[in-house]
Amino acid sequence: MNCSGRLLVYVALAPSPAAPALLAADPAVDAKDRTAVINRAVGYLRSRQNADGSFAPRLAGPGVSAVVAAGLIGNRVPNDDPLLARTLAFLESKVQPDGGVYEQRMANYATSVALVAFAGANTGGKYDAVIRNATKFLRTLQAGDDGKLESGDVRFGGLGYDGKSRPDMSNTQYFLEALQAAGVGKNDPAVQRALVFVNRCQNLPGEHNDQPFSAKATDDERGGLVYNPIDPDKNDRDRTPQGGLRSAGAMTYGGLKSFLYAGVTKDDPRVQGAIKWIRVHYTLDENPGMGKAGLFYYYHTFGKAMSALGEEQFTDAKGVAHDWRRELFEALKKRQRPDGSWINDGDRTFGESNPELATAFALLALSYCR
After folding, report:
1. Which of 7, 60, 87, 197 lies 20 to 30 A from 360 at CA?
2. pLDDT tens for residues 328-351?
């Protein structure tokens, strides 16, 4: 069922408390055009929702459903809309006694994204307890939270899909985003521990990154962030000919917003290093360093980071000023399929060959095109 006329009213409403706080009016993105794209996407999701309110549960447990919910909330769909209400109810049904929102795996990923969704839908304090308990649970998943891991260990402060098992930049940035959504302050020990790990993911040797791979970064890699800084000699996929690790677009944008979430100032070398890398590699045609893999994941991380940076135009290394909101919207619009969905054929690395996940990421990215 496509309720596009009803959604048109939603999008035209004034900003609600659930809308991302950093959105700004952008006259370069035509409101009717954007609404039409969103309506088609929401219509597709209505047709794909399972009876229990879930989306693609076999792919990532409640993870995909959480991204769907966050995307709907970001585009100002009301909590009582049946599509969103059923999705939130499904997520509630996956709240575990330990406070996490997951099934058997991907506890950090699913809980972090679900917490962001619950925080966005938390009118009248409805989800206060869920948010509080999920935040406590996430803290237990962080490497070093129990004092048993030395700060010099490369894993310190990081998180993996299931917590302390092989931390990576992607899961750590989701964790930081969840803590921010829950109202956790920048100086909180968990945030500052995560910052230590994010520092070690950056191809920027110096006081913040003591890992040998960062000293082997080429000029093209310097300032960008890597997915996994652990055991670089065994990382055949990301290892460079010089013995360093490849910087990637989605990880660099994720790192940029993580620095800002953790209170690192814009004039800090870490932020400036990430921005410099982005200026050189600015594109919406691919996920830099990964090609087409993770393209829609890249789009939503791009939107979040640019919004956190707070610049309506972004100038690349060639001096070209980009209206990034309009360019992000156009990149999404041209890739939308007639049924309203998006898909990244053949992408098994990020799972975007599943149209429900790709569409969820795309919808979330659209919330930053306003």
Report:
1. 197
2. 999 999 999 999 999 999 887 889
